[in-house]
Amino acid sequence: MLVIFDKCHDPYFNLASEEFLLAERRMRQPVIRLWQNSPAVIVGRFQNTLAEINREFVAKGNIAVVRRITGGGAVYQDFGNVNYTVAQPTGKKIIDFAQFTKPVIELLAGYGIKAENRGRNDIEAQGCKISGGAQTIKDNRVLHHGTLLFNVKLDVLARVLRAKEHKLAARGVSSIRARVGNIVDFMREPLPVEVFLKDLEKHFLR
After folding, report:
1. Between vectors from CA 76 to CA 75 and to CA 78, what angle results, nearest 5°?
2. Distance in angstroms (rounded) separating the CA atoms of residues 64 and 84
3. Which of 52, 77, 53 shows the shortest CA–CA distance to 148?
4. Taking the model in full, what pTM does it have?
């Protein structure tokens, strides 16, 4: 297993690296990559970018907008967010999220956080989304990447992303912020994000 603890915070480079890891068939062993982005909106492969973001707020805040190679929804990331990537050969033809989210849920349990898979690709704690994942398979190689909201600026997140009107009506809330939460807020003893990153690395290695 190759573990890459990437210190680059450039969202354009980081998303390009994901594409490389999926395409690089010479890598026979599993690759795990841990990384963070400077403030950015990462848009799903099939999304209409202008429909997903608050364009004026994004431009004013100099927030990068980058499209990824996997499907799913748009996410906001900053230095309070932790990203993990797993790339490896596979014989499967269908998307399987559970095998990749299991180590994350186990790690969170060690902090006293009861987390569980919700829907197809989310992890929730106490009814709040704390992680979203996306995945793709190409040429017998799978790439799974997930975003962990550790201590993200949720007020900025709520302003950057556009909420769908039908979702707001169904949930009876007026903000995306009400549906997401930070991992640090559910911990018995809050940790710096740097310690969480190291713990995540050790847990994946085990």
Report:
1. 140
2. 19
3. 77
4. 0.88
